[in-house]
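Late entry, evening session. Most of the bench is empty. Finally got around to the prediction I had been postponing all week. Sequence below, unchanged from the version circulated by S.P.
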Amino acid sequence: MSQALIDQARKVMENNDRGTYTVPTHGLYPFQWNWDSALSALGFSHFNMERAWVEVETLMAHQWVDGMVPHIIFHEPDDGYFPGPDVWQTGRVVPTTGITQPAVVGFALRKLYDRAEDKAAARVRLAKLLPKVHAWHQWFYRNRDPNGTGLVAIIHPWESGRDNSVDWDEGLDAVPIEGVAPFTRRDTTHANPDHRPSDEQYKCYIWLVEYFRGLGWDNAKLHDASPFCLVDPGFNGILIRSCDQVADLAEILCDTSIASEAREMAANGRAALESLWNPALGQYTCYNRAAGRLQDTPTIGGLLAAIADVPHGRADALARRIALLGERCGYLVPSHDPADGAFDSLRYWRGPTWLIVNYLIAEGLSRSGQREMAQRILADSLKLIQKSGFAEYYDPMSGEPCGGSSFTWTAAMVIEILKTKRVPA
């Protein structure tokens, strides 16, 4: 069964391969997405290491001069997606968006290097990529943490990768939507509208894009100017872990400057992450920087912080929290607590289970000594695949497939889980 699933997953990835980059799925997402690519590289690394490196190299080739790596690269025209380059207007030769996504590249690079058979050749590639990834991390702390708190903020829900999470409801309430140019959504023609963000949320998304565009996409201004400014524990957890991995790789390359700075970034971030601990929920929660308060939204973002190698006491609490969620649903880990009134088992990030987040949470918990819970999460992930195929995400109650089908990063995670033997074959 394991090899059959790996073969099926590989076929999904190959069908979405565009030569130097992958698309998440045909139709719904026809371009290169930032954290999709980095995680997809992990899947490629088990059957085509060259292709894995190229995936990351293509992404990083479109880094902005200031260090930002955009969340979408529009390699080829496709009017099946909105908002396209004509809305973003970022002025790039190859069009990109003007916002970023979770910094998972550093995490992925460490795994690519560890798996490379030819370490000398891998170090040559690393020597070109690592300064770029480090520059991206510097960009985060310079532009999204201007007061030096140790934690970076997102200024658009799409940056989080968890587009319509309940975490963003309060922040979006501060976003005016008057004057938004009329638009026609494309996502609801490719997927069930009941699985997608609402029209009101989309108006907020587009208002922010138009507002930032009016500021010339000047990253030195956007943080303080944005009415939406949230500190996401999961987003920060990924960045912290990637800083750790960049430091490790820099030491391999004997680059003491990058290694030292990356270690300091990670240490400061990990210490600051404690300010997001919510004792009432037994997990981390988001901080609304614009409003100046810690939120009480029980979402997966606070569990994803486990990827940062949190203290063992925190990891133990997160494992207990996930066990509680397991009593409330059929398949771990729901993106929102089923006991909360805002839970929606079918709608994108307001309830459904995602394999990529499952993998990252399990990775963090395992490293922090919570191996039993990590294995349970990954076992549930494979049960979803066997029941419903390689969907974008799944109803955590029934296991029903939701969103797009034949999804690249879902397939990549299946290969990663089975090839690294994280669960019994």
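Two things to note before I forget:
The beta strands are 32-33, 72-73, 230-231, 277-278, 283-284, 287-288, 293-294, 393-394, 401-402.
The mean pLDDT is 96.
Will write this up properly tomorrow.
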